[in-house]
Design brief:
Number of strands: 0
Number of domains: 1
Structural class: mainly alpha
Shape: globular
Order of helices and strands: HHHHHHHHHHHH
Strand content: under 5%
Length: about 280
Amino acid sequence: MSWMQVIVLSLVQGLTEFLPVSSSGHLRIFSELFWGIDAGASFTAVVQLGTEAAVLVYFARDIYSIASGWLKGLFNKEARNFEYRMGWMVIIGTLPVALVGYFGRHLIRDSLRSLWITAIVLVAFSLVFILAEKLGTKKRNYEELTMRDAVLMGLAQCLALIPGVSRSGGTISAGLFLGLSREVAARFSFLLAIPAVLASGLFSLPDAFNPEFGQSASALQLGVGTLIAFVVGYGAIAWLLKFISKHSFSWFAAYRIPVGIAVLGLLATGSIAAY
């Protein structure tokens, strides 16, 4: 990979990872538009470590409370409070995407990276956003989260393995359908993504240097890309949480649909290739 590719794609990763617009989809589109080649799922997974580091820093207090509460509850039944239950919710909610990601890794790195799929999903899944906004009561708060919410949002997280869906978009939409407020759905979505993305990035690290699919990157390029994604991603988290406190997720559908249609047009005219 060239340094320009690394810098641009890392900026795109940081800007889009937490917004429900699909970071993997945007990386796929930018790669094809400007360089005519797919950077690869492994590069994406590794650079995502930067944006997940941003989550770790931004939600450090929440993570510490959940982790310490879970550990205390393991050895003391009297200490099994909400944080203890939240620890199990994150663990159980992560299992679906871990299993699907591992057993479907070859499909994810190859067949699902067609730009036809990305463009169609960008448009189609936008309708899910709109429905979630219209049908969700958005009344349930953070303390009302249950294991059922964790399992269903965890299953929705599996959809993020398809470029164009969006990890936050899938899980937040599921949360809205379950009656959670936008802020609660987004906060739990970020917490739920931490184990899955960290595991995916570390698992993909060796492949990023000599990928089966996509381009290779040097250790320095991956390091710089991860740092860029961290800085930009931190700002994106803060902006999104502030934005959704007053605005509907349908605004993101208004962005995704024209982008998806534009990519479909470029594909149909042969201006860009699907792979």
